[in-house]
C-alpha cells in the first residue's frame, strides 16, 4: 500500500467510525430533551456519547469487512472531493457567524435556565434552517470521494437519511420552545436546499 492509498484508507476509516455516530449522538437527545432538562443535561450528553461510542465500536470491529471494497485512486473523485471540502468549509464559516458553541452543543435546549437561547434566523439561517446538517452531508461526501471506498459512500447515504429523520425530531422541540415564531420561520425558510431567492 503506497502513501496515497494509506491516506485514502485513513480517511475512509475516519468517516466510517466517526460519521454515523456524529448524527446518531442526537437521537437520544432531541426527542427526550424535556426529560433531560428534568434529570440533568449531563445525562442527555452521556446518552448521546454512549450511542456515539457504541456506533464507533461496532463499526470499528467490522472495519476490515466494510472497507474491503476499494475503488482505487481516482483523479476525478479526488477533484470532486476537494471541491466538496471547500464547499463544506464555506457553509461552516457562515453558520459559525450565527451560532455560539453553546448553541452548537445544544445547551439552550438541555439547560435553558443556565443557557437561554434565541431563535437564529439571520445570515445563512435566513436561507436554510439547518446549515450544520448541510455541512455534515457535504463534508461526508467530500471524505467519501477522497477515499473512494464503497463503505464511505454508504456512510454518506446513512448520514443523509439519518439527518432527514432527525430534522423533524429536532424541530418538534424547537416548536415547543419558540412556538409561533418557529412555525412561521419553518413556513418561509426551507430545511436544507435554499430557494432561488430569499422568501419574504
Would you give an account of this structure?
This protein has 200 residues and is mainly α. It has ten helices and no strands. The protein has helices spanning 3-24, 33-39, 41-61, 63-66, 75-96, 101-104, 107-110, 131-147, 150-178, 180-188. α1 packs parallel to α9, α2 (33-39) packs across α3 (41-61) and α5 packs antiparallel against α8 (131-147). 28% of the residues are buried.
Our estimate of the beta-strand percent is under 5%
In the CATH classification, which architecture applies? Up-down Bundle
Rg value:
18 Å
Principal-axis shape equals: globular
- Helical fraction equals 55-70%
Broad structural category: mainly alpha
Number of domains: 1
CATH topology: Four Helix Bundle (Hemerythrin (Met), subunit A)
Number of helices: 10
Reading off the top of the CATH hierarchy, the class is best stated as Mainly Alpha
How many strands in all?
0
Amino- and carboxy-terminal Cα gap: 55 Å
User: Element order, helices and strands?
Assistant: HHHHHHHHHH
Biggest sheet architecture = none
Low-pLDDT runs of 5+ residues are none
Mean pLDDT: 93
Amino acid at each position: 500500500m503506497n502513501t496515497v492509498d494509506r491516506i485514502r484508507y485513513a480517511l475512509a476509516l475516519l468517516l466510517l467510525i466517526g460519521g454515523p455516530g456524529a448524527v446518531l449522538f442526537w437521537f437520544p437527545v432531541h426527542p427526550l430533551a424535556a426529560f433531560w432538562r428534568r434529570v440533568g443535561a449531563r445525562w442527555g450528553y452521556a446518552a448521546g456519547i454512549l450511542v456515539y461510542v457504541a456506533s464507533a465500536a461496532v463499526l470499528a470491529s467490522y472495519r476490515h469487512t466494510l472497507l474491503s471494497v476499494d475503488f482505487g485512486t481516482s483523479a476525478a473523485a479526488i477533484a470532486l472531493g476537494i471541491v466538496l471540502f471547500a464547499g463544506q468549509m464555506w457553509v461552516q464559516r457562515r453558520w459559525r457567524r450565527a451560532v455560539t458553541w453553546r448553541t452548537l452543543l445544544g445547551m439552550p435546549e438541555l439547560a435553558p435556565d443556565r443557557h437561554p437561547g434565541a431563535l437564529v434566523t439571520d445570515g445563512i439561517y435566513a436561507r436554510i434552517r439547518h446549515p450544520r446538517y448541510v455541512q455534515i452531508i457535504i463534508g461526508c461526501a467530500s471524505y467519501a470521494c477522497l477515499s473512494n471506498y464503497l463503505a464511505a459512500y454508504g456512510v454518506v447515504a446513512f448520514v443523509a437519511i439519518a439527518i432527514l429523520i432527525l430534522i423533524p425530531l429536532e424541530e418538534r422541540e424547537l416548536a415547543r420552545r419558540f412556538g409561533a415564531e418557529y412555525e412561521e420561520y419553518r413556513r418561509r425558510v426551507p430545511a436544507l436546499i435554499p430557494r432561488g431567492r430569499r422568501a419574504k
